[in-house]
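Second attempt. The first submission of Prenyltransferase and squalene oxidase repeat protein had a stray character pasted in from the spreadsheet, which I only caught after the job came back as garbage. Lesson logged: always re-copy from the clean sequence file. Corrected sequence (350 aa) follows.
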Amino acid sequence: MNYPTIDRRRFLHALAASGCVAATSATPETARAAIPKPKWREAINKGLEWLASKQSSRGQWNTTVYPTAMAALSGTALIASGSTTTQGPYARQIARAADFIISKSRGNGLIGDPQTDARYTYGHGFAMLFLSQVLGEEGLIDRREELVDVLSRAVQFSGNAQTAAGGWGYVSAKEGNDFDEGSTTITQVQGLRGCRNAGIPVSGEVIEKAKEYIYRCQNPDGGISYSSRQTGSSRPAITAAALAALYNAGDYSSEQVPEMLAYSKEALHGLGDAGAAFGHWHYTYLYYSQVVYRQGDEEWFPFRDRLYDRISVEQQPDGSWTGPIHPVYITACNLTMLQLDRGFLPIYQR
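This time the job returned cleanly.
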């Protein structure tokens, strides 16, 4: 029998609020998952309140950089708390974010504004991911139809924007001289996977080309290069993101995956500052946390404890986090990581 998702949300909210787990099946591991440290819960609550307070009445977060991406990342972090567009303390903010992002949908399927965002594929990919999570919980038929239309055209745009090598660049292939790079490629793959999970048709050929692109960018040390045109130098951030994307694409066992996982674990598992020179620490661990989470509790819990402790300590008194790009970006990334255990985002579930 298929039960409505909202029933599961209510159950998980009640479980979290009570701090209880079933007495007959509880283990130390499940108890740790069900009852996070109070300081983590406090950091999450303060961060969510800060993020929600920074949204404008039009649904956007008034940043000068990446407006579509910021709205999508922030909306995703709010969904991770358990709220939907109709229920929960952040329902209004999520609905507004969805309205804003839908308003950015163009006739050719692009979600974004090339006039104000020179690297619009980031916003497009994150927007597909966010709206696909909204679609999975949307109960109003007319709203669902609108989301399906926007996402169907967005998927088509992504397919048309793919480069000959199988990746994506900061803009569509035709506008960017067929240039590709890893971070935007991963954003597209996750967005497309979110759409497919929500019932939007996605070309298998597009996904296979993207997987082959990642394989071609792999170096002898197991890491992934920044671009298919700049191979030979591995980047931990791109490697972690590529692993998460491959998992999203259903690839857990190709011969490249263990090598990528070993490289990532050596470079990142100690929570060092790999990638910090590029300002990518939070980007790196947004993806690497997804990778470790999917390895199972034995790997996840020790890593999670160290990661969450570090994130909590770095929070500002007002509830935000600061760092490269913008506090909205850093706060949204940290909140998404801190709430992986809650399991409300289908795209990140095991």
